[in-house]
Design brief:
- The protein contains seven helices and 139 strands.
- It has about 1900 residues and is mostly beta strands.
- The strands form 36 sheets. Strands 6, 8, 9, 12, 18, 20 and 23 form a seven-stranded mixed beta sheet that branches.
Amino acid sequence: MTAEVMAEVALLPGSRCLASRGVLCAGRAEAKAGSSSGGAMARGSARRAGVPGSGVQGRRPERSGPRLGPEARAPAQAGSRLPGSHPRASGAWLPSGARARPASLAGVGVAGEGVESPGSCLLPEARPSPAVAPARVAESPDARRPLPAAWQHPFLNVFRHFRVDEWKRSAKQGDVAVVTDKTLKGAVYRIRGSVSAANYIQLPGSSTQSLGLTGRYLYVLFRPLPGKHFVIHLDVSTKDNQVIRVSFSNLFKEFKSTATWLQFPLVLETRTSQRDLVGLAPSRARWTCLQLDLQDILLVYLNRCYGHLKSIRLCASLLVRNLYTSDLCFEPAISGAQWAKLPVTPMPREMAFPVPKGESWHDRYVHVRFPSDSLKVPSKLIEKSCSPPEAVLLGPGPQPLPCPVASSKPVRFSVSPVVQTPSPTASGRAPLAPRPFLEVSLSQERSDASNVDGPGFHSLEPWAHVEASDVHTAAAGTHVLTHESAEVPVVRTGSCEGFLPDPVLRLKGVIGFGGHSTRQALWTPDGAAVVYPCHAVIVVLLVDTGEQRFFLGHTDKVSALALDGSSSLLASAQARAPSVMRLWDFQTGQCLCLFRSPVHVVCSLSFSDSGALLCGVGKDHHGRTMVVAWGTGQVGLGGEVVVLAKAHTDFDVQAFRVTFFDETRMASCGQGSVRLWRLRGGALRSCPVDLGEHHTLQFTDLAFKQAQDGCLEPLAAMLFVCSRSGHILEIDCQRMVVRHARRLLPTRTPGGPHPQKQTFSSGPGIAISSLSISPAMCAVGSEDGFLRLWPLDFSSVLLEAEHEGPVSSVCVSPDGLRVLSATSSGHLGFLDTLSRVYHMLARSHTAPVLALAMEQRRGQLATVSQDRTVRIWDLATLQQLYDFTSSEEAPCAVTFHPTRPTFFCGFSSGAVRSFSLEAAEVPVEHTCHRGAITGLTATPDGRLLFSSCSEGSLAQYSCADPHWHVLRVAADMVCPDAPASPSALAVSRDGHLLAFVGPSRCTVTVTDSASLDELLRVDIGTLDLASSRLDSAMAVCFGPAALGHLLVSTSSNRVVVLDAVSGRIIRELPGVHPEPCPSLTLSEDARFLLIAAGRTIKVWDYTTQASPGPQVYIGHSEPVQAVAFSPDQQQVLSAGDAVFLWDVLATTESNQNFPVAPQACEAGSGIGPLEDASSRASELPQQQVPKPSQASLPRLGICARPPEGGDGVRDTRNSGAPRTTCLASYKAFTPARVSCSPHSAKVGTCLPPASGGWLRLKAVVGYSGNGRANMVWRPDTGFFAYTCGRLVVVEDLHSGAQQHWSGHSAEVSTLALSHSAQVLASASGCSSTTAHCQIRVWDVSGGLCQHLISHHSTTVLALAFSPDDRLLVTLGDHDGRTLALWGTTTYDLVSSTRLPEPVHGVAFNPWDAGELTCVGQGTVTFRLLQQRGADISLQVRREPVPEAVGAGELTSLCYGAPPLLYCGTSSGQVCVWDTRAGRCFLSWEADDGGIGLLLFSGSRLVSGSSVGRLRLWAVGAVSELRCKGSGARSSSVFMEHELVLDGAVVSASFDDSVDMGVVGTTAGTLWFVSWAEGTSTRLISGHRSKVNEVVFGPGEAHCATCSEDGSVRVWALASMELVIQFQVLNQSCLCLAWSPPCCGRPEQQRLAAGYGDGSLRIFSVSRTAMELKMHPHPVALTAVAFSTDGQTVLSGDKDGLVAVSHPRTGTTFRVLSDHQGAPISTICVTCKECEDLGVEGTDLWLAASGDQRVSVWASDWLRNRCDLVDWLSFPMPATTETQGHLPPSLAAFCPWDGALLMYVGPGVYKEVIIYNLCQKQVVEKIPLPFFAMSLSLSPGSYLLAVGFAECMLRLVDCATGTAQDFAGHDNAVHLCRFTPSARLLFTAARNEILVWEVPGR
């Protein structure tokens, strides 16, 4: 590792971060808070200067969103208006799109101020100036009077209304004339000329005015001139005043889109011999009605709301008759009274083209509708017409909908891949229907051609037969090609709805700097941020917090930047010729203007201080230097950028600046010249400075110095220029002469490595690349790598810092205290002149990044690049930690070891080396390959490593120990000469399979990862049967193990999904990108597919079969080489020119719900679906039931930020299909492990009554998701009950009030409600205190237990009442296999049967109380009850399950309409039985997981599966199929609705119509489901695993819990409703702390959560986002606490280390190892109240460890003081009575006496020890019945709460010594916490939380 920089003479290590006080923090970079909102910028202190002479005042810069750090502000209140925003009024003030203007803008007419008519005014530009203060808006009554828009209805003749013939309010330029057209028999305007931009008609005539036309549709009646090009420009204003240019032309070769410009190609290609003239209008071009839906164009392509039409420009060469606007959609081919009864709107006579009698409209004219809408020509009209159809199609975009066209002649047609953009949805609205790019209204004949459904992932259209005459239109990628022929293709594609969320990714951070140049880096005027380019992205970096925000829109590298003096305007230029420039609103990040520069490549930009003038320098297309001056003062007022002047010069220009004292004066320098410029009279003129003997120098940079007295006259300013020879010239701007000349010379001591002193004398100089001037000093950057600070007299060096590479740019901050420097090696940082510390801001690779790898435990990223370096980055801070350089060989591939701090790297020489991040050395190297390494990957468990090379060999390594070794080397396995790719090798996520491309490009091989035995070989070249060329594989990727999918990207731009076991095609994604994709990956929850597509990233919704198309993300300027999800699935990384970090905004549940793999795949045209062999052999119908066409299934969640996806793992090895097969036992009750010991029976613990006692149970948080049918709901009575542990909770759904029925000695397993709803039966599992399981019968009205019965020795699995409520049946689990019948009169046992096989469900026949049915393993058992006197016997009839249903078990049942019985199987089948005949006559595949729940009512069936799917089926026709027997088919059964929940469905209750119900899942959630609305709402939600901590917010408004399921949940304390959830995938949250109330305002409340990987995350409660992630520990955190002021976080881990960190910066500044060797169990912090401890400090805190030691400390972290107060060690007995683990050591400060400390732990005695810190001795001991598992002290009284492993809670009154015990939990009470007010007590056992009220004592 090399040196970073040198401040003074101190050399700072490059991998260390310097704190502000100069403290070196070894091995850790400073962590920065990451923003989840992705775009907030610090508030600016400067005000924008007004435009001279405009009378417009300055304004305070606006904020675009929340930001991190102490400066965070509360969001604006509803109805408030930010400074500078336009006022909003109720109702319409002006016509749509027009707005009132500032009163200071004179000379522009407003309604009521002399305007001739409401419809004839030319309104000013719609976008209000950001510089206009709200108080300046016109408030006259006339201005407020609404201006009606009725004058534009039903349509508006634009040419007539604006009197185009007078050319007063319109403009023309070039060859524009009025001619007579023979076809239309009238006058038209002819616009012609060789240059379209120089010959046009423009409405309105001035760019500062607006048409103000609000019509949704624009009708352009025009005809292209034969053999010519034409262009139509529309400037459309959105409702938020953004001007969008929409252009249509046959000049455009492809569709292009930016934030402010849409370009649609409209190419008319003739089928003549001149086929090379692509794009020219055909010789027989006809008059065309171009109908544009402006509203949908903006909504579909830019997700913006249409406001009004601002201006129109019609450019040569074309004939135009007129323009019309309207809100009505007219049919141009329809006019006259004969169409009055049709459901269409005919074209008004004024707009219609003339049609001679007897001729067809379509024979003479063309109608183009774009985009198409839902209005279609009626079928009756199509039948009556025989005219030829005509179509025009634009692309790319959302794929067209099926267009029904009559047919009689054959036309060959196939769907080509179309680049697709997502269809955005309007906020708060349902997704819009997808629309094609262009649709043509045609008259056609009906034919018998049938419609074919959309292709989904692969289009397999049959040939369509269409009658046509003269026009053929086809989608050709990105063109619109209109061929004159006799063939018309019928386009039928799938649905194009965009999937949600949109967008799914948001750019969070960028690792990189520079790209085109490293000279572009500058300070903001307030000095708070740095602006710099990173290839095509402009980054604004807050230097204090490290937060980034971005300006996105450039498609190539940014070559120049400039920022005005008020931080209002940012200008940027794009490198590739012709240069595209953008002007941005710096505060909001919005692109205000996009324009092309006359300069082909802009190398320098400079703003005037006011922002009204922008100057640029570059080369024109002849290579000559050009200087251009633009006027930008009107951009903020809605105007455009105007070229004020431009000039060519033969002198070289390297730097160009506008002076600060005069906006019309500039200066430049270059090779041998320094020139002063002036803008005057519309011209740029320059004059040289007399350089004398220095005229041969090569000048590199310049800067102005302001006079000390602040004078702004030119004579008071001095100009400094620097050169490559080391000269610095001081030039008098008034006299234009050199006043002083100095030279920088190197002086070295003999043998000294660094310069000792700099002087100005003769000799060889040091090349100076940049300089910057402040009033007190001059900063100089030179190519020797030094940044030097000089006084302005250059007497001596003030400060210098050495860099790793040549310094390319320097910039002094406005306050003169910081100096920004950039190097050509990609480093960006600043030198703090006060502290003399250099701070690194950004590092970068200097060449494209080839591959990346991520490490989860430490949160690190590894990248390899063509610059021959390997770099390690911290993902939390985006700072570089290590770099490794290889000068002789290039690194090609990289991967981390999953468990050790080691990464592996492959090189071009064939070597594979391991690098240890702890020892910083290369331990092992292997050179078994002969070619460059192309692939490198490791198994998830880290046992094996694989590498491949360009010679085709594959190597396997054993990584079980650090000295890894080669196991096997196989030659000719991998495709030789394959390029290195992150996706060249792929290991399945269970580590059992290895996939790669080879041995040829056309094959993909899957091998066993352990033995490398070949398991599968797929010939990719044979997959594309319709292609004429051989396809080849490019990259491979495995899906989640439960899916069994293998994804392959091919050279034909497809992604093929294969079954990893059988190799069959599951699905296909065609046309993903015009170029092959080198990298692809699938998220852990199989929801999103990520593809590297050229310079973009494409995200596909993988869960839907009918793909809605991808979301495309720009930002990279070079091809993306690698894409990957972060290990926690919350972020995406993409690598190419730089490394981009994206936040995943999708909400997914932690439980994985994988998509369904279809059973059939269509492989080509004419090939039918591949049938399943089992389906063909079946005697019963096994058809796929039709499913509703949805873009995506609902994903349910309540996460405040995007959680990472699922944590479930399913193993599908050796399975023939990628479907999930779950055993029937998934529905069996699995009681929690009860920790009750025999001692608990000796203690008389009981739940106290509702009134009286020390505690009252107030609320239960949670639902037992491991039960079965343990929830009941009756909508007619409102009774709602569910189980939580040992309790039956009865809750009022309206008020939320709870009743708690207690009495069970073990967890309740199931419930049953009688049909009369008067009796509830509950059954529990086993208990150590009882011999049999308890069954309790409750009176619903009184809530009292009426009967307690027991018979089963094992858990009761199911309960059911007979239809007449006379009998109760109980079913034992699989071990007990007991079926018992009880009489409900006395609840005596009537009958008991031992079952021969496990039974999973039981139900009474609702029409016959004497019939009972059981389902189990392979049989359906019908039991008839026969009563003889008092005895009841069961007559048994068993019916085997037909083989056609498939192997598996019957898991659920319910009765349908008589005599039907529905049964669910473990394989996802639903079979229907005829109970009278005892046979199964129908079955269908209802799900991919086991069916655990079935409910029937009316004609609808509800099924719930083990994969979380809840489906509603229409089964009304099943009764009719019963007569057909085995010939019945399931086509009459179809699915109405589907919901995906967060876990397996275990309970459900619906109303009689099955419209709404309550559903319970294994995730511990109860959902309210409404099928009518298609929604689900959480009713009850608890943690799915152990709760580790409960903390409380200030004011007790909220509390927070953390759990081993990785979630942190924030609850409203009053209602215990879930408010926020933070989810981390595959990690356990072990500890939690809430910032104290004294740390700041309520909006600054934070949560600190510690995780099992050693990470500590800081969450903002107000912003519901993670602010910071740091890794203060290498192992799991076990305790965390805030200091009393909230500015410090203390954390302890399982190794006994205590780290002290800053929660804002993420730096760890102290580590205490006094407890090393034993886990930290408690950290407690309090204010230091006792002054007799002998130490100083503001805080008193303690740490307790598992070895029975407690340390007490006094600290003052602001003064960096921490002193040991006391050290306590307690004896540990040889044996302790525990339940398999050692009780924790717990300690806490006494809240009512600051000198006391209480301790519990595994000591000699079971007791609470009270220790006095002042007396240094134990003052009291309180005996306990058992060893304590939890401890809490009441802040408001002398109460002590202790939880025990024996399911008991004890409350001790320390004042009186009395105690009281409480029961309620079914497991160890491992957590108890009093609220700060002491009114409530929270206790937790496993995942159950009980809330107790503490009455006043």
